[in-house]
């Protein structure tokens, strides 16, 4: 969306969780610049208005969350892309029903990975060929040019979690670098049925397990495992519980597991 009569505007955006600013007696916040071009969710923009729709449509007045009131002047449809223009409303005291989440064109670029159900059926059940039911194309969507509020996520550690408004909960992935932050979806915002609730609990459990695992030194990861009875100086198992030497294939697998653990452990330093 492009602002026709643009003038600089800084929005006062609340910090979440809402840390109390004791000195000033209010919740802490940070400034976000409203740029001439900003972005809305596609579902909030229509070329034709309708009853019960509170988003952007021609001649409609809306408010940006934490921001000013706008009047939409035009919406253009180009293939699958919707582009609109708007102007600051003449009467800023107007209280429109539509209050829209948005992102500045100056926001931080990130990669976002969104996951849905792994299989093409709601419940896997007893099947012989479960691999044929894996949704290899639709279970993951990668948005390589997503935009987020940089002040809210700046300097976040791996596995730090966030709620993206209207989307769900996301966590900083270990693939992140100083130049490129990667977010993985861990819980969708609208998981209501029992199957989704179970998946949500499992996802949170796995996240908790992963956080706990990050504190385990790879030198010690096998020493408490009763499946082994002897270890070398680097903590790698050499014999099973019965005292028999481990096979080369098993040693190779354990070494791969240790390399993965080292990456997790190093990311937590």
TrEMBL record:
GO CC terms: cytosol
Biological process, per Gene Ontology: glutaminyl-tRNA aminoacylation
Pfam family, one: tRNA-synt_1c_C2
Protein name from the UniProt record: Uncharacterized protein
InterPro entries: Gln/Glu-tRNA_Ligase, Glu/Gln-tRNA-synth_Ib_codon-bd, Rbsml_bL25/Gln-tRNA_synth_N, Ribosomal_bL25/Gln-tRNA_synth, tRNA-synt_1c_C2
Keyword terms, alphabetized: Protein biosynthesis
Organism: Aphanomyces astaci (Crayfish plague agent)
GO MF assignments: ATP binding; glutamine-tRNA ligase activity
